[in-house]
Design brief:
mainly alpha; 86% helix; single chain
């Protein structure tokens, strides 16, 4: 696509947006602002969640597998992990022989919470967007219907009244359509992010449990 075509496309988008705002009124304007904010958050969360790929957790598992045979190699592999979780696991392995294991377990839990906290950030705004969008759309529809019937009451002539009412109704319903169009994709996006976070939380819990139980059963099998 060359530059004139891009400019033409941009002009068409702006024209369509302006027409939509004119027909839908301020409620559509609020919904569009919400969608822009939501898109920015979703884009940020997508790149952030991409860091929690299964391959990175598998690399941490392999690093821990080396612990019984080569502790230095295990610690070096954990240090090289792009996830800060690698350093947390390293801390746990280096201190697992301390007499107060319960204190170590609590400290690992605290560090794990701090590790996961940034990934849970901005989930609530996405939830609010997909929850509020259809409600705001319905509000816009109700306000539009009120205006349509008010215009019907003030006008004269049955043919003109019917035309005015029909136009007022479809313009009013436009806000509901916009609200649903925003809510549906953001519901899917939020569910996907939440699933990724739940999986990552489970993997973190599993890895930190391994820190405390990594030698369980080895002596019996020796």
């Amino acid at each position: 696509m060359n530059e004139p075509e891009i400019n033409q496309l941009g002009g068409d988008i702006w024209a369509a947006t302006g027409s939509l705002l004119e027909l839908g009124g301020p409620v559509v304007g609020v919904l569009m602002v919400m969608s822009v904010i939501g898109f920015a958050i979703a884009l940020y969360k997508y790149f952030q969640m991409s860091g929690l790929s299964p391959s990175r957790f598998r690399a941490l598992d392999r690093a821990m597998d080396k612990w019984s045979g080569d502790k230095e190699a295990s610690l070096k592999a954990l240090d090289k992990s792009p996830l800060a979780l690698g350093r947390i696991i390293k801390f746990g392995l280096e201190n697992r022989d301390e007499p107060d294991t319960e204190e170590l377990r609590e400290e690992l839990g605290r560090k794990a919470t701090n590790f996961l906290q940034p990934y849970a950030a901005y989930m609530r705004p996405l939830e609010l967007i997909y929850f509020l969008a259809p409600i705001l759309g319905l509000l816009g529809t109700v306000l539009g219907m009120i205006d349509a019937f008010r215009g019907l009451e003030a006008s004269a002539g049955m043919d003109r009244d019917s035309t005015a009412l029909a136009g007022g109704i479809w313009e009013a319903l436009l806000t509901t359509a916009v609200g649903l169009s925003i809510a549906i994709p953001f519901t899917i996006v939020h569910a996907w992010f939440e699933t990724r976070l739940d999986i990552a939380t489970g993997r973190v819990s599993d890895l930190l449990t391994r820190v405390m139980t990594i030698n369980v059963g080895r002596d019996a099998n020796a």
